[in-house]
Write a structure and sequence with these properties.
- It is a single chain.
- The chain is 36% helix and 17% strand.
- It is built from 16 helices and 17 strands.
- GO terms for molecular function: hydrolase activity, acting on ester bonds.
- Keywords: Signal.
- InterPro entries: PLipase_C/P1_nuclease_dom_sf.
């Protein structure tokens, strides 16, 4: 039986990998966001109508362990009660395969380095802003645990289309195509699991753009102590999100429609509405807070605020012109955005320096505002990946394939037709058709004993973005 080459590649990537401290927590926050997002998309209907899966997201998809032994060796280390580990036969629901992709996207840890993107500079993860003390600790931790912990990486949008990414856009398109074109029903379902794995991994990378440290290139924020062990380090912000919301408590998507016409636009665009754009402009991260300012006798809050403004690494978020200096001396205060969400805490220490920090209460408010937005962008990306659809109609003169209302318009590409026999064995129906933005193409009628017809388009949408589209018609 033919193996899933990309799933085998994924297994090799995951083999021996340790959990990453460079992202929302992989076993809780990421799958929670992905599941919440998926249930607010058209993906359930897409799997039902375009792939002929009546149960949609709840269709059982099986990857036999014998076909991917390394993958299942890695999966054996995951908690089976979390709902994204297949049973002994290698079977679980389509939604669970999608969730699994979001769990394993940042392993090995070297891949997690490619989940950063600073929209102001266009850069990915860099150690250029890492304090010398933090860099020394980072290297010591790597030596102690015997791992090559990354300090630099490719920008996240580039990583999604990079040849070295085993779960990027190219792999999604490849697995989607095989989920339609493979000969047996079992193979098609296994490839669909592979496509969902890749989609989940891509959504994971976008979700990381909602974390302030990821959108501000703040590696130091991921080297904070988060446990009793000296080498137990990571992002306190992302750890608190996991502790407060877990997986099942992650909020549902909330927010306006996401105006993204390309994969990169989900991260950043000229309108400033990409998720990384919004995150970088709205929030401080632990390592990009305002620099301390010495409060001298006679200085008022407006003078101090002006000094702070000069010391800001970025123009946004802004520091208000009036600060509560009395509260800053007696116990501390905080600044908030227009919605009343805490942006940062501040206090004046014993050396008369105005210091900034992110306390747990402040971070909790931020996380409550960020997670619904991250889920909203996740849902939009899933709908974008699965935006292609084909409608099939059979008449005496042959088959007509059209683009249903609301689906992505087709650009240049190849249209292939298939027919299924009573056993579910799928065979090509005529030669593939090279098309240049057609809306309709006639194809000869299927054999009399055909039980279903399937269609596949692989190419570009009308805007030139990569596109795959499927159609299915039972006879």
């Amino acid at each position: 039986m033919k193996r899933l080459s990309r799933i085998a590649t994924l297994a090799a990537v995951l083999s021996g990998a340790a959990a990453s401290a460079l992202a929302w927590e992989a076993e809780t926050t990421h799958p929670g966001l992905t599941e919440s997002a998926a249930l607010h998309t058209d993906l359930h209907a897409h799997l039902r109508d375009q792939f002929g899966m009546p149960q949609g997201l709840f269709t059982a998809l099986t990857v036999p362990p014998a076909d991917a032994p390394e993958l299942f060796r890695v999966l054996s280390a995951l908690n089976p009660t979390h709902g994204y580990v297949p049973d002994a036969r290698g079977s679980m629901a389509a939604l669970s395969w999608l969730s699994l992709g979001s769990v394993v996207a940042d392993v090995p840890v070297q891949h997690a380095a490619h989940h950063f993107f600073d929209p102001a500079s266009g850069d990915g993860l860099s150690d250029a802003t890492l304090p010398a003390s933090a860099e020394a600790g980072h290297r010591m931790r790597a030596t102690m645990i015997g791992a090559d912990l990354p300090q630099t990486g490719k920008p996240a949008p580039d990583w999604l289309v990079h040849a070295d990414n085993p779960m990027g856009l190219a792999q999604f398109v490849d697995q989607y195509e095989k989920a339609v074109s493979a000969r047996s029903a079992g193979e098609r379902r296994r490839h669909l699991a592979g496509a969902l794995l890749a989609a989940g991994a891509m959504v994971h990378v976008l979700q990381d753009a909602a974390s302030p440290s990821h959108a501000r290139g703040d590696l130091a924020a991921h080297l904070e102590p988060i446990g009793p062990d000296a080498f137990d380090r990571g992002s306190r912000f992302e750890r608190i999100a996991a502790l407060v919301y877990g997986r099942l408590g992650v909020p549902a998507p909330r927010g306006a429609a996401v105006p993204a016409s390309s994969l990169r636009a989900f991260f950043s665009n000229s309108e400033g509405t990409g998720l990384a754009d919004l995150t970088a402009a709205r929030w401080f991260s632990a390592g990009t807070l305002p620099a301390p300012v010495r409060v001298r006798a006679g200085m008022g809050s407006q003078q101090i605020a002006a000094r702070l403004q000069q010391n800001l690494a970025r123009p946004r978020p802004d520091v208000p012109r009036r600060l509560d200096l009395q509260a800053a001396r007696t116990g501390g205060a905080h600044i908030a955005d227009a919605r009343g969400v805490c942006l940062a805490d501040y206090r004046i220490d014993e050396d008369e320096r105005l210091q900034w920090s992110l306390g747990e209460a402040c971070m909790n408010q931020q996380i409550a505002a960020i997670l619904p937005l991250a889920a909203n962008y996740s849902a939009a990306l899933l709908d974008w990946l699965f935006r292609g659809a084909l409608a099939i109609a059979v008449a005496e003169q042959g088959i007509a394939v059209t683009v249903p209302e609301g689906a992505a318009a087709l650009g240049a590409g190849t249209l292939s037709l298939y027919w299924d026999d009573a056993r579910g064995v799928r065979s090509p129906l005529g030669a593939a058709i090279e098309m240049s933005a057609p809306q309709q193409a006639p194809i000869p009628a299927p054999p009399a004993d055909a039980k279903a017809v399937a269609a596949l388009f692989r190419g570009q949408d009308a805007a030139g973005e990569p596109l795959v589209a499927a159609g299915y018609l039972p006879l």
